[in-house]
């Protein structure tokens, strides 16, 4: 008898389908974090390699900096009937390091290690969305090499090449049948129990960042930054199964082993760091103040999400050739930078983003929502040596999920289950970043 276990692999694309934008980090240095990740040219230390490599040309020293960030996310899910489910608490620790080396009078080279994405969530056994994702962890580490070059006194260009490695851990639940293998007629169906399918894999991808900055007037400058998309194609990932709930029956182990013990299943999926484009404007009313605004878009719309099925017979994963496109996500930001003394700088910023990710009826969710982010920063440098600190708070408000239904084996009568988990995700995240600066 053919038994089909339908598992939508879309969640492997962006773990935390309701929080797609939460995983992309700009915490690659306290200077940038304290300004809410404004991608203009006022980040004038090694972290400019990540934010806008054109600004590297303004770093005229052999410098080193290292940053560690502490993120404390709090994620919960509430159904329409006001039942609340909390994800497990965890701490994220993204790190970054940068070196800068001037070459001649107009160019500076940079090399850096960054953490562009980082997310980790784990839900309890009673979470309604466990059939789409019960655990997911994804982290990207990147090594970047780039340079910034200054043309005259007003125009700067920069470029970097980025080698990225992404590790993925994922688990979701599915319903399995329990048959009377010992007695009964024609393997009598006695009931159902839950099992869990898991993957643990890593992959690499190449990308680049290009930036420019132009002082169009004495106090005004315009910056443009483009980051290319990076695709990670997770092919033939081994899927391991484990019993998720216990059966109070004599031959529970045999029932599980007959269904999953001999299955050798692989899954394919895609994770993408989307291309992004940013335009920023900086205004310098005095030598002490810098005011900046920017607009950025994450270009998800060219990404087609594949759907895959687990199939018990013939014990392989089958690609049904179905895809779904995502929509773009837009963000805007504002920051202030104040030089209090020769050694002390104060920074602050805020950012707003909205996104809607449309799905069709085969998909597990239709998330839409808003993000608000506020941050403060302090820098103390004595001739290039010292510390920077940034504090931040992020809120993902009213991130709704509608029509979230999971189908289990639509091919067999009596083997169909719908879980309508329409509701709201609520994610708040506090954190801080510490950067150590050293000038050689």
Question: Can you walk through the features of this model?
Answer:
The chain is mostly beta strands. 4% of the residues lie in helices and 58% in strands. The chain has three helices and 20 strands. The protein has helices at residues 30-33, 48-51, 252-261; strands at 4-5, 63-79, 84-86, 95-103, 107-122, 135-151, 155-179, 189-214, 220-227, 230-243, 265-273, 275-283, 289-299, 304-311, 316-325, 329-339, 344-356, 368-382, 385-401, 423-439. The strands form two sheets. A 14-stranded antiparallel beta barrel has the order 2-4-5-6-7-8-9-12-13-16-17-18-19-20. A hairpin with a 5-residue loop joins strand 12 (275-283) and strand 13. It is elongated, with a radius of gyration of 25 Å. The N and C termini lie far apart (71 Å). The relative contact order is 0.20.
Question: What is the compact description of this entry?
Answer:
Helix content is 4%, strand content 58%. It is mainly β. The strands form two sheets. A 14-stranded antiparallel barrel has the order 2-4-5-6-7-8-9-12-13-16-17-18-19-20.
